[in-house]
């Protein structure tokens, strides 16, 4: 008995935030996730000057001004190339992370940031708006890769008791990137007719920092052990990340996961779609990623300027209020980092989608009575801020965390590829359709977003379990009953605490 307790004791040892883990988190999130957020917002403020550049370039070439419809089309293409690039970047996730590793993919991904940064920085000098459009597509590929690979990398580096908090850090840096672009976009800083190319080119700086510093940090121990079979490197990486020599408990859990996946092999997207044991996990990440993007977050930001204007905010001051909204987003995401391990993932998702649903309904009413009731514009502003708070604590950060946790090593790359593709296609769809929705339905378009939030909330309430403080194998077993499969280790059920002998057992996954 005493011997068994001795074997189980390392498994119960709770991980801590070591300097190596903290720095790996900050460098990968700043070098990759920050750029995603920065490039979402970077063209909002200088858009009048960029469109003026498009027109002047056209006049210089053809001796006549560009038609308004053609200018609108070119600008729409410039904006939509980013999520389209993101979609193609998501399709590259599985092959790259399996071949280059998680850290290796992040380092390789910097090519898709530095090259377009130079292109956009030189676009005015080259008198070519085509360069901007192509660069937006390439930097979109960078965002598509980083939005999936950073959460995967950090999820595999983290101990299970810190996985939620560390998993939210990429989303935190996305919001910091948005805020940085909003601040730099103030007219007195870089959002003007002379400095907008500098603003676009700055996206390459985080990539250079990551390229210089990330090589000094470890690759994912799970990748090294399970996919590369390099136990020595995996153990050394784990010891650096945990700050102690005795990593037997986690190594045992990884070996156990490795054994349980031997029969499956590395899953492609097609085989993932046909896996009965992963059916509900897959449906869950698709619903959550669609809910995240189709919940109206981009529409809220689209409406924000006009809402602030109608409340009496001077045109020149709206940019400062927008920065304030971005700051609220950052603050609430920081709050989510600190509360996710106490409250759990499921509760934050339910509260977040609930707040967004209520805010959209109230905003619809407020926008309709804005002209007739003098104080109603202030209710509209409150709705925008409350919506941003709700989205920041749940729908924005948690789907990335849960995608990492719901899948094991062999299926995780393909799962992120599916989740990322859904995320970016939904983003692209909202960008494409919302102007038409807004023109046809006006403020009533927010009722559609409210319904999407409600449907997502009901699905999470009925299907998605709490994954806090669970190993990847424990989460897999939680879904086994719903998927109508049985996961066994040898002749018995999957043990939640691995003993020394259990590592020698074979793992069998059998359908009922």
Counting copies of identical and different chains, the oligomeric state is single chain
**Structural class by sheet pairing and helices:** mainly alpha
Mean pLDDT: 84
Q: Please give the largest β-sheet.
A: 3 strands, antiparallel
Q: Which bin fits the share of residues in helices? A: over 70%
What fraction strand?
under 5%
Could you give the order of the helices and strands?
Answer: HHHHHHHHHHHHHHHHHHHHHHHHEEE
Q: Work out the helix count.
A: 24
User: Which term fits the overall shape?
Assistant: globular
**Would you report the number of β strands?**
3
Reading side by side through the largest sheet, how are the strands ordered? Answer: 2-1-3
- What is Rg? 24 Å
Low-pLDDT runs:
1-11, 489-512
Task: State the end-to-end distance.
Answer: 35 Å
Outline the structure in words.
With 512 residues, this protein is mainly alpha-helical. A three-stranded antiparallel sheet has the order 2-1-3, covered by helices on one side. Helix 12 crosses helix 14 and helix 19 packs antiparallel against helix 20. The longest helix is centred in the C-terminal third of the chain and has 30 residues.
């Amino acid at each position: 008995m005493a011997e068994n307790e001795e074997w189980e004791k390392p498994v119960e040892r709770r991980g801590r935030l070591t300097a190596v883990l903290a720095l790996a988190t900050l460098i990968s999130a700043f070098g990759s996730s920050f750029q995603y957020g920065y490039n979402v917002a970077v063209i909002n403020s200088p858009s009048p000057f960029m469109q003026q550049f498009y027109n002047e370039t056209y006049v210089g070439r053809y001796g006549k001004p560009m038609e308004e419809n053609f200018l609108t089309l070119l600008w729409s293409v410039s904006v939509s190339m980013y999520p389209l690039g993101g979609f193609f970047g998501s399709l590259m996730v599985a092959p790259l992370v399996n071949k280059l590793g998680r850290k290796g993919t992040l380092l390789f991904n910097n090519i898709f940031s530095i090259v377009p940064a130079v292109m956009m920085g030189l676009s005015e000098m080259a008198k070519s708006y085509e360069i901007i459009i192509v660069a937006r597509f390439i930097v979109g590929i960078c965002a598509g890769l980083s939005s999936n690979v950073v959460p995967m990398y950090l999820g595999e580096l983290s101990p299970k008791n810190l996985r939620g908090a560390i998993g939210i850090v990429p989303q935190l840096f996305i919001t910091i990137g948005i805020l940085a672009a909003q601040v730099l976009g103030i007219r007195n800083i870089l959002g003007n007719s002379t400095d907008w190319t500098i603003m676009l080119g700055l996206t390459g700086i985080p990539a250079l920092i990551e390229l210089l510093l990330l090589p000094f940090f470890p690759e994912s121990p799970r990748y090294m052990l399970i996919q590369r079979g390099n136990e020595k490197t995996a153990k050394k990486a784990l010891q650096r990340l945990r700050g102690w020599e005795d990593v037997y408990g986690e190594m045992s859990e990884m070996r156990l996961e490795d054994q349980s996946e031997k029969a499956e092999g590395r899953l492609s997207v097609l085989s993932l779609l046909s896996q009965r044991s992963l059916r509900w996990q897959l449906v869950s990440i698709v619903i959550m990623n669609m809910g995240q993007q189709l919940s109206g977050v981009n529409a809220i930001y689209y409406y924000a300027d006009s809402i602030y204007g109608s409340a009496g905010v001077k045109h020149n001051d709206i940019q400062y209020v927008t920065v304030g909204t971005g700051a609220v987003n950052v603050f609430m995401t920081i709050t989510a980092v600190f509360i996710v391990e106490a409250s759990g993932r499921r509760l934050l998702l339910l509260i977040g989608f609930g707040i967004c649903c209520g805010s959209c309904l109230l905003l619809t009413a407020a926008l309709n009575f804005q002209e007739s009731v003098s104080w109603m514009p202030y209710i509209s502003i409150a709705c925008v801020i409350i919506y941003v708070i709700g989205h920041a604590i749940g729908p924005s950060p948690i789907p990335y965390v849960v995608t990492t946790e719901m899948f094991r090593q062999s299926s995780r790359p393909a799962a992120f590829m599916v989740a990322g593709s859904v995320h970016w296609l939904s983003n692209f769809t909202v960008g494409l359709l919302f102007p038409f929705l807004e023109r046809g339905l006006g403020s009533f378009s927010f009722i559609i977003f409210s319904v999407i939030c409600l449907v997502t909330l009901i699905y999470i309430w009925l299907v998605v379990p709490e994954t806090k403080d669970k190993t990847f194998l424990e989460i897999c077993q939680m879904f086994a009953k719903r998927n109508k499969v049985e996961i066994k280790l040898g002749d018995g059920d999957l043990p939640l605490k691995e003993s020394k002998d259990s590592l020698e057992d074979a793992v069998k996954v059998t359908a009922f």
